[in-house]
Specification:
Layout (H helix, E strand, L loop, with lengths): L2 H9 L14 H4 L4 H22 L2 H15 L3 H12 L5 H9 L5 H20 L2 H15 L2 H8 L8 H7 L3 H19 L1 H25 L4 H24 L3
Length: 247
């Protein structure tokens, strides 16, 4: 399995067979492709949103677009976000990791997901029609440049977890490639607003990873998923704020 197809299989619901045995470090070696997969995902969502906008009013159109967005990822990153929110209430690192491994969702995770998705739907509904498709192209690409960055900067919480396996396959070159590609897509799609959104998303991602490193002793696969979701929301909110700012 090539790095590109592995990234596509992991980050989306694309029906790609697992094939032969995949080494645990392979996903980290595919990290440079993450923003490209995000860009493709965003363009599919943009096309779907264009169809929805011809049939439904703005709010319902935005809700359907966000629904399509999350369905295409299989809810993988939302699951990580929910686990991180639930784990926040643990007494110590071991207790938090135990809570995060539990497949059941708790009150913090459920409420957090609801509020998070409401914010995303509201942000999408506020995007101007001319800006919306470009935002859809940039947001997933920027967000998927963040896991390689934070996994490279911070240790893994557990030696055999998904975060550790991902980190072990990273190299400086792959991290730089992912970050550069995410930034390039943001600037090409959104100009100065994209550059600002990229910087804010990177700062929020690093801050979130640092926070959970203090709580858990490092980052996990769930933290990387939460980083993606947080970065997506930050970029959306930045673009909305930039569009409404006086010139």
């Amino acid at each position: 399995m090539t790095s590109l197809t592995l990234a596509l299989r992991y980050l989306t619901i694309a029906p790609i067979p697992a094939g032969a045995h995949v080494e645990p470090t392979a996903l980290g070696r595919a990290a440079a492709w993450f923003p490209l997969i995000g860009l493709a995902l965003g363009l599919v969502v943009a096309a779907g949103e264009r169809v929805f906008s011809l049939i439904f009013p703005s709010l319902l159109d935005s809700l359907l677009a966000v629904t399509l967005w999350k369905l295409l990822t299989g809810g993988l990153h939302l699951d990580g976000l929910a686990d991180c929110l639930d784990g926040f209430v643990g007494h110590d690192a071991g207790d938090r990791l135990r809570i995060m491994r539990d497949s059941r969702i708790g009150a913090f995770g459920a409420v957090g997901l609801i509020l998070f998705l409401l914010l995303e739907v509201a942000a999408v509904s506020e995007l101007a029609s001319a800006t919306r498709w470009r935002a859809f192209a940039a947001v997933p690409a920027v967000a998927r440049a963040m896991p390689p960055l934070v996994a490279w900067m911070f240790p893994a919480a557990t030696p055999l977890g998904q975060g550790a396996m991902f980190r072990s396959g990273l190299t400086r070159t792959r991290v730089v490639a992912a970050v550069a590609l995410g930034g390039l897509v943001a600037v090409v799609a959104l100009g100065l607003a994209g550059l600002l959104a990229f910087v804010l998303a990177a700062a929020a991602s690093v801050g979130l990873a640092r926070f959970y490193t203090r709580l858990l002793g490092g980052v996990t696969g769930d933290v990387l998923g939460a980083v993606i979701e947080t970065a997506e929301l930050i970029v959306l909110l930045t673009v909305v704020a930039w569009s409404g700012a006086p010139r």
